[in-house]
């Protein structure tokens, strides 16, 4: 019984196997375990739902002679599907299938046991071939996860049994005599990869000579400072063994060496100067106060994880060159330090210490000179909204005219043809006009393709002629909190439509729940594409500002995003380009649009500001209409959030392709669906989308660049 390591699998649909199982059932010394229903429930609840063929696959009964136990399990395909489901997406389904075809040989089942076990756990092999002549001794149990019940049993047998109890379908082959000249050819036949972990120096070299001649790569993990060696003989068949650090070496000259004789060679091979201090000191004591070099169980387990990572790279074709690396946990632990705060600090107050809107002037002062009034107009202009709070405008005045131009250096990929910048300039001009009119100084305005000129008259008096509208300009802010989906009041809706019309725009309102839900799906899908397109993703996160950011006067402060700590943690993940690249490669990431979907569905309405053309002047006029609608909603107590789908300013197929090379067609289709939902004509253009909600008040105002830094130069 000590040499038995293979489980016996019975399929009741086979008459002979069914009869053999019934014979086992008569043996009262055996234990039968049946947890199939739990396994089936686990299979049924997987996402996505398994194919029907998996659900209907016949079960198996597995007899483990060394355990005197028979266990019911799912069929082989369903078993693997369920057992390895938690590997996703660190290992994709296609990668799992590719890795499952590997035949891996492991020589030496002390460190090799941990490696074989880890490979089996992750399902990243199809066949494991294990070779070791030695038996389990009590002194092995500091690093081999066996038990005292395994004493005296061959190490390869113990490893094979343990793996069989994890996955009885995994093919295991063992060579109980270890690697010799008689067994080496059979052991290497059909191998894709060798993991060498034996103690014998001559076998180490012999195995590499055999691997090199057959162009089989070799991995070795040495459990001191996490040393991993990779020798890609498959790519470099002339590569010297051990990277050439031992010079010309032959396996025959190393036979019969005692432990003490091996030490100089081992030290040369491992590079004595880089050994851990404790290992180096122990080498001096070998055969004196200790029998051989020490090994720790934790270091051995780390070796299992390290080799598994290398096998995953090899099996999936990822970068894995020949070479050597140390994954030294002590070195990493020496570098322990407090994490840099990124989200936990309170943001400093924005201008107003009490969270009130930033203010550099009090428009209610009784006496104001012309210079102060000019500053007031410019200050109102800079409070306008802009995509990502980029503030793409220049502001200047000569006392008679306020000029608001387009700062073309503040653009982004979404700002096709500076259309978004034109909308921002229009909003800034609306604010400037309101401030000038409130002081009795508005004389007229001229919109050009390059911006807006507002003519100022002499000051009539210190009286404010329209304080309420000016309060709306000063107090307007973005509120991204979730709403209650309470219906929009009909009177408010009428006011918003009138506000857009008075500035030459058209406000299209979506208030029906079904229409809002359709829009939420479109906008959510557009957000997903923005995350998965590298340059759009990079620009999106460049807009965000964390505490201590060196450019705090532009961009969006994370505290204003209306998300909780859990979502802030997710933000740390989704901002990583490497993570998004994997999600893109897997064509997944439905959750990337869920935040937008949830916010839109919580809204009372969406209002889309439309203009009757697509010139710069049209988009500037759209900025006027957008700001008037926003200020009107704010004065009615409605929370407003601008929504900028990636397709917002794209009009042609080429412009959609410019946004995303791989998903341009998808963006164009989303754009078409959105315009059809809103009944927007081909001639019309969208200036901006606003989400309207009944939501808790949000007193965080985006920072602004000082007026003095916004001159046209």
Automatic annotation (TrEMBL):
CDD domains assigned: E1_enzyme_family (cd01483)
Residue ranges of domain THIF-type NAD/FAD binding fold in the record: 85-223
InterPro entries tied to this protein: Nitroreductase-like, ThiF/MoeB/HesA, ThiF_NAD_FAD-bd, Ubiquitin-activating_enz
Start and end residues of each stretch annotated as Disordered: 339-366
Domain of life, per lineage: Bacteria
One Pfam family it belongs to: ThiF
Family annotation (NCBIfam families): PRK07877.1 (NF005901)
Stated name of the protein: Rv1355c family protein
Annotated organism of origin: Rhodococcoides yunnanense
